[in-house]
């Protein structure tokens, strides 16, 4: 698998004029090699070129991870003293003759730590933004990746169902969040969640990125729960909004509007359409209902090995949807000081349209 | 608290000749401001200068986090389209006149993403490694930080005790790791652990960074468990090695040697001594017992808001220990194909010596 992916990388590199691509510890490195490294004080970098086997620079302490490497590579391992790391990078990269050449990097992942070692070891190489290549590689999911994403969705949905019985008037947001976290792990999520669950009731729901607080649920709250699981390194990210006891007419109204926007957004996607069009279709429902100014964020983001990745469902994004892409549709209405609603699904682009991987009911559900 | 810390930052900046310091989402930003942001595709940067209030650049979506900011700041918030982010950075930084000045950054935390926005917005500023400043600020822990670290240790020790009853012959490493994870959360750890617990039995223990596998414990295994908790953003990191049933004479011998090295290392630290001396004292015990070549890593690392931070207990590190520093002492012996031992404690430098925050018995304990 890594061989095929590296071959596709080579094709993109040739197309974009990159002589090399350098990745550090993170999802793109894992995608291309099957290896897992943490971002630590000891840099791990792999350099891919068009002509040669990949060059791997890593701490000796991590070298055992290469024992069953399924592709040929040149390995340069360094010891515990940072004083020698620069030499190791130099030894590793000298023979690639990258001076004057274009080297693609990933600005969202590469730190100055690795960049400085690379820069010093590569002479006058030109380091350029290679994000497009990584996005092109990773945004089209293969069968196995889609299976992992379905599993991440199933774990998340089952974990929420197992949590809902304790969601009652008088229970604190953060206690619900803790229980949901445990249920995610118990239902099989990897322990590195895509993000800590958001549980925000009443006025707290008006902040899309609220942290679960000590506030206890009261009757009349709208309750936003935004959560996800990690299955084999692939993420899910779902939101549902609940009614705590009896809610008022406006709360019911905005939930209905967001539900319609979510349905329109899920249905909108098809190969050949722009990401911007998905945002516009979704947003239009909320705008026409008179709440446009209260939908304060983009409609969604790509999802896969990272919870947020390309493609972004943003009005100004002209990127074209292709089969195999996966992204969220998550319209919301946020009324400061009162309450908020968001309904989020994970959508897969298929050859002829869009399939929502998440299927839990989006109707308002009364808890408490 | 953030005011005092920012004042100390200013003193270090003046001393080192930095006109400004720029931090992105991460522990140093949290240390200096009390704010929490995730590393995401939307950059968050705070620039501290000597003459002016801090400048905060962040997404509008996160702006609510500044509602109760306990210090004055100039805030520049950007919208959802990356096309406008560059302008926001420019507006924010123009008035600081940093062209030609030195700006300190943290290469281990700053990504090219933030660096490129900063570079473009700051004219000809010189971005230099400010790691020393962040290390100087964060490596001396105050009373509150030490209390959090004690709590992180107590949570970790209690979680392991609660896990040990299920550690038996025939149980898989990864099942022990899952249970330990749940116990950490149940005992009060924040859900973002310092790292996923390492549980490695028999030959797997010979890899210091092994991932818990499906391998089941067998009689005669040495079992290495390396785990930690997070309490209020402060980490613990402890290792104990257990005997699964009856172990052979060499396993007993290497455990005893590592236990002696750990005791020597814990006792070695005192203010005024170099970090290198702690490594040497620890390593000498293992070398004199004839196993020097099998202790393949440094003796330890600083610990606090990050699991690995300054100061590093490495033979060539001349950095001087000061009261308030916290670091690990974790000697090990790794016999490839056979087994491994590591015993790790978290040590606090006090005015007159070293106190181990972790206190769980280091004697070999038989499980299974």
Descriptive overview:
Chain A is α+β, with helices and mostly antiparallel strands and 368 residues long. The first copy, chain A, has 2 domains: 2-138, Creatinase/prolidase N-terminal domain (Creatine Amidinohydrolase, Chain A, domain 1), CATH 3.40.350; 143-367, Alpha-Beta Complex (Creatine Amidinohydrolase). Chain A is built from 9 helices and 19 strands. Chain A has helices at residues 2-16, 27-33, 85-94, 112-121, 131-139, 143-163, 173-186, 249-268, 275-288; strands spanning 20-24, 45-49, 55-59, 74-78, 102-105, 126-129, 198-201, 222-227, 230-231, 234-235, 238-244, 300-302, 309-313, 326-329, 332-335, 339-342, 345-350, 353-356, 366-367. Chain A has a 6-stranded mixed β-sheet. In chain A, helix 3 (85-94) crosses helix 4. The longest helix of chain A has 21 residues, at 143-163. Chain A is elongated and about 70 Å long. The model of chain A has no long low-confidence stretch (mean pLDDT 96).
Write a compact overview of the structure shown.
Helices cover 33% and strands 22% of the residues of chain A. Chain A is of the alpha+beta class and 368 residues long.
Task: Please specify the SSE layout and strand pairing.
Two copies of one chain form a homodimer.
Chain A (H helix, E strand, L loop, with lengths): L1 H15 L3 E5 L2 H7 L11 E5 L5 E5 L14 E5 L6 H10 L7 E4 L6 H10 L4 E4 L1 H9 L3 H21 L9 H14 L11 E4 L20 E6 L2 E2 L2 E2 L2 E7 L4 H20 L6 H14 L11 E3 L6 E5 L12 E4 L2 E4 L3 E4 L2 E6 L2 E4 L9 E2 L1
Parallel strand pairs in A: 1-5, 3-4, 5-6, 11-19
Antiparallel strand pairs in A: 1-2, 2-3, 7-8, 8-11, 9-10, 12-13, 14-17, 15-16, 17-18
